Amino acid sequence: MTGPNRYVKPGIAIADLPPIDFVMISHNHYDHLDVPTLRKLAKRSPDTIFFVPVGNGKLLRKKGIEQVRELDWGETASIKGATIHCLPTQHWSKRSLTDTRKALWSSWAVTGPQRRFYFAGDTGYFDGFKEIGEKARAFRFSRCTHWRLRAQCHDEGFPYEPRGSSAGSGGYKS
User: Fold this and answer.
1) pTM score of the predicted model
2) Beta strand 116-119 with 107-111: parallel, antiparallel or unpaired?
3) Three-state DSSP state, 163
4) Which residues, other chains included, contact 174 with Cβ-Cβ below 8 Å and sequence gap of 6+?
5) For 15-160, where are the alpha helices, taking DSSP H only?
6) I need a surface site. Which of 2, 22, 137, 150 has the fewest CB within 10 A?
């Protein structure tokens, strides 16, 4: 199975991107783990590290991407003064007819001495947001892929900072 074709070009050409230290992948659905794009990023910058939830590294390595770090929920990794946190999210994984929930899915936080960023992944609201919020200080920036999630996180006391966030529709219309 090769997966669907990409119908919309990326918003910025890969050649125009700044140097990339790392990439965080939330799960293995084709719209979030686009192998041709990831291969181009890896070829452009061989030192870029690709952080994936447990069970997703084999696919990237099979496709020639070697700088892969697999993390489980609750695990962390350090890179250039930042800490990458693999966190729960409410979703699932599936890339073919026979691999439903065979690989993990996740949200991610990146924390450093001056900035904190949260990426919710592809998720619906779940009680884990409250726990993540209680354990973390407020995030300066966040990225939520579903537009309704912003209000839900805010209503539940999640340390969500709208300034600088991109919690909009993500290109989806309801």
Assistant:
1) 0.77
2) antiparallel
3) coil
4) 147, 148
5) 35-44, 57-62, 128-135, 149-155
6) 2
